[in-house]
Design brief:
With 129 residues, this protein is α+β, with helices and mostly antiparallel strands. It has two helices and nine strands; from the N terminus they run E-H-E-E-E-E-H-E-E-E-E.
């Protein structure tokens, strides 16, 4: 039996901030996900790229589609995690723990984030608002 997770002081409301799904064709992906989920996805500029955002309540966790491939050599979705302090300190911890930082800090309207891969090659981003 494993021990329960430690509760952090000043823990964020949501450990997962958003999810990114890479697609080949943004318009076609919007049509598919819109039909599958019976919703409209809004396309907007997200940092350097266009993205299509899944609808969510103002306090809910969302995600988006983007044309391209995940950061690093990964494939599939990218999970974005909330950092407890600064991106720079998190980058140091990622490297020390065997992960790979694969982008500089990227500024978006909601805050800053960077892409990384874990030791298994999974695509991640770490977000600071």
């Amino acid at each position: 039996m494993t021990a329960p997770a430690t509760i952090l002081r000043n823990a964020p409301d949501n450990a997962i901030v958003w999810a990114e799904i890479p697609v080949r064709d943004l318009d076609a992906a919007c049509a598919f996900y819109g039909a599958a989920l019976s919703c409209d996805l809004s396309q907007q500029q997200m940092g350097p790229n266009m993205a299509a955002v899944f609808p969510a309540s103002e306090t809910g966790v969302s995600g988006h589609l983007y044309e391209g491939k995940p950061a690093g050599d990964g494939s599939g979705p990218t999970v974005s995690l909330c950092v407890p302090d600064t991106l720079e300190a998190t980058m140091d911890r990622v490297r020390a723990a065997g992960g790979k930082v694969v982008s500089p800090a990227i500024q978006i309207p909601a805050g800053r984030f960077f892409y990384a891969t874990d030791p298994d090659g999974n695509s991640l981003s770490f977000f600071q608002n």
